[in-house]
Amino acid sequence: DAKTTQPNSMESNEEEPVHLPCNHSTISGTDYIHWYRQLPSQGPEYVIHGLTSNVNNRMASLAIAEDRKSSTLILHRATLRDAAVYYCIHPLGGGADGLTFGKGTHLIIQP
Amino acid sequence: GAGVSQSPSNKVTEKGKDVELRCDPISGHTALYWYRQSLGQGLEFLIYFQGNSAPDKSGLPSDRFSAERTGGSVSTLTIQRTQQEDSAVYLCASSLDTGTDTEAFFGQGTRLTVV
C-alpha cells in the first residue's frame, strides 16, 4: 500500500501557480520524498525529490514541511502541457516499497 | 541508448498464447522495475531486480507471470497462457540503485492486448 495521501484531482488555470499537496506521516528520517508525473499515454517521468530542504529545478519546486510529514509540489506557472497525474512517493531501499505508486493527483489545467 | 527502451511497443495476442516483453534499461543502472497499468488505473508493482536477482516477487499476479534479468542488463517479462485480464500497459523503469536518493527512469511501455 502507498504510504502517501494526495487529493484525487485538482484544477487550475493556465499560467497560474499550482500547489499540489501530499501527506506522508509515516516517513522515516532517511526517506527522500519523490514526485513523478504521468502525462496521458506516456510512462511516468521524474519531477523532483528532496530530503529536508526545499528544492528547485527547471520543472518545479518542492516545499517540505519542517516535520517532513507533508510536502507540496509547486508548479510556478502551469501550462496545458502540465496536465497529468502527479505521484508523491517516498521510496524505501528497494523491494515492493521501493517505488510503490498510489493513485496520485489528476491535475486539470484550464486554458 | 539514452533512455529505457521497451519492445514491442504494442502486442496483440490470442488468449492462451505466451508473450515475452523486453526491457533495456539505461546502461549502468543496477535496479530494474516492472509495473502494469490497466486502462484508467494506477501503476501496479510487479517485480524488481537488483542486478540479476529478484528479491521480491510478491507482486506477480499469478504463476503465469515470470521475469528474468541476465547480465545485469536486459530483462524479459513472460506471461504464459495469456488471459484477457492481462491486457494492460506494461512499464519498465530503471535506476542507478535502489537507494532512496535515486530517481527512476521509465520506458514508454508495451501495450498488450489479449483477444
What does this 3D model show about the protein?
- The complex is a heterodimer of chains A (111) and B (115).
- Chain A has no helices and 9 strands.
- Chain A has strands at residues 9-13, 18-23, 33-38, 45-50, 55-56, 61-64, 70-75, 84-89, 105-110.
- In chain A, strand 6 (61-64) and strand 7 form a beta hairpin.
- With 115 residues, chain B is an all-beta fold.
- In chain B, strands 2, 4, 5, 6, 9, 10 and 11 form a 7-stranded mixed beta sheet that branches.
- The N and C termini of chain B lie far apart (33 Å).
- The mean pLDDT of chain B is 92.
- Chains A and B meet through strand 4 of A and strand 4, strand 5 and strand 10 of B.
Tags for this model:
heterodimer, A: 111 residues, mainly beta, 5-stranded mixed β-sheet, B: 115 residues, 49% strand
Topology, number of strands of chain B: 11
Gap from first CA to last CA of chain A: 35 Å
What helical percentage do the residues of chain A reach? under 10%
Mean pLDDT of chain B: 92
Greatest chain-chain interface? A-B, 27 and 26 residues
Distance between the termini of chain B: 33 Å
Quickly give the structural class of chain A.
Answer: mainly beta
List segments of chain B where confidence is low: pLDDT < 50 over at least 5 consecutive residues.
Answer: none
What percentage of amino acids of chain A are in beta strands? 35-45%
Rg calc of chain B = 13 Å
- N to C succession of SSEs of chain A: EEEEEEEEE
List the strand order in the largest sheet of chain A.
1-9-8-3-4
Structural Rg of chain A: 13 Å
Oligomer: heterodimer
* Total DSSP E strands of chain A: 9
Helix/strand class of chain B: mainly beta
Low-confidence stretches of chain A: none
On the 0 to 100 scale, the average pLDDT of chain A is: 89
Strand share of the residues of chain B?
A: over 45%
Largest sheet of chain B: 7 strands, mixed
SS summary, helix count of chain B: 0
